[in-house]
């Protein structure tokens, strides 16, 4: 189990927001940093944390993303507006991987042509598929377009096994609890631990060392974890340093 840190960028600033409010008129912001993205990238580099993700939430965030990748080349993944035509640019800029959701899941369906183009452009070893999901009728489905639209793509063992042929890792946000510091979706954690055979990072609701202990127990130590709004470096009460030490 690794701690995978995050740098979320919104309107040119490092922020922590409730992701499910992104498509709404009033975005709920948990934290706005006075520091730029390079500060956090350097912190993660010093602590030897690899595979953290930089997410560009909308336009106007490229400069901050570049600062992070320059500060920690090879140590961070990049997501937000990535497609087959610009993915190589971000890899060349220092990202270890690109993260995609809406590009390959559009009009509510998995677009294999786009996924294959992306693999052709940068190789599966540089691809993280974000299968952020919500529950509907007792099943998990990928949601896209700032988590506002359900796709018809079910997150289950068969579909995960299929997608593992086209990527190096998965990043999976439990959309209904992400950013709310209200506890994780335990059933999803257990399902992902059973279904995945490649590195997979779970995001959503972890807010204490007790939650981390429970996460480790539920996942058998098989999944990685990311924590955002709950951390003291992002205005929360959970000491970042304690999380780093615990996961080491």
Automatic annotation (TrEMBL):
Pathway: Amino-acid biosynthesis. Keywords: Amino-acid biosynthesis, Histidine biosynthesis, Isomerase. Gene3D superfamilies: Aldolase class I (3.20.20.70). It comes from the Bacteria. The keyword Isomerase applies. Its EC number is 5.3.1.16. Signal peptide: none annotated. One of its GO terms (molecular function) is 1-(5-phosphoribosyl)-5-[(5-phosphoribosylamino)methylideneamino]imidazole-4-carboxamide isomerase activity. It is an enzyme of class 5 (isomerase). Belongs to the HisA/HisF family. PANTHER family: 1-(5-PHOSPHORIBOSYL)-5-[(5-PHOSPHORIBOSYLAMINO)METHYLIDENEAMINO] IMIDAZOLE-4-CARBOXAMIDE ISOMERASE. This is Phosphoribosylformimino-5-aminoimidazole carboxamide ribotide isomerase.
